[in-house]
Amino acid sequence: MWEDRTRGEQWVLTYDAKGLALLSDEFLRIASNNAVENGQRIFELKAVQPGVYHLVFEKRMGWKFTAEERRVFRIEAQSVIGG
Q: In whole angstroms, what is the distance from residue 29 CA to residue 38 CA?
């Protein structure tokens, strides 16, 4: 997900921690200018039990009470049989 930290943007993830585990949360800086910090925010999650889960991503600015942008994903995790 694109993030411009120079403007104060940050993606905040909300998810069910009982069914999903956050494996990593990384920021890959794209800009080559030292004064600018923008790039890709990469979240990696793994289902720890079967079920239907919702991931809610909100792009937040430090000084605002409401999100700039919101994305909701529905994830369906099933048990792996024989693996």
A: 6
Helix (H, G, I), strand (E, B) or coil at 20: strand
In a domain, residue 82? The reply is no
Q: What is the pLDDT of residues 24-80, one digit of tens each?
A: 999 998 866 777 888 999 999 999 999 999 999 999 998 888 999 999 999 999 987
State the residue for tokens 């720890």. 48
Degrees (nearest 5) of the Cα angle 63, 56, 20?
A: 125
Residue 72 lies in a domain: yes
pTM of the model: 0.82
Domains identified in the chain, total number: 1
CA distances from 82 to 26, 50, 58, 71, 79 (A): 32, 15, 37, 34, 10
Domain residues for the domain of 56 are 2-77
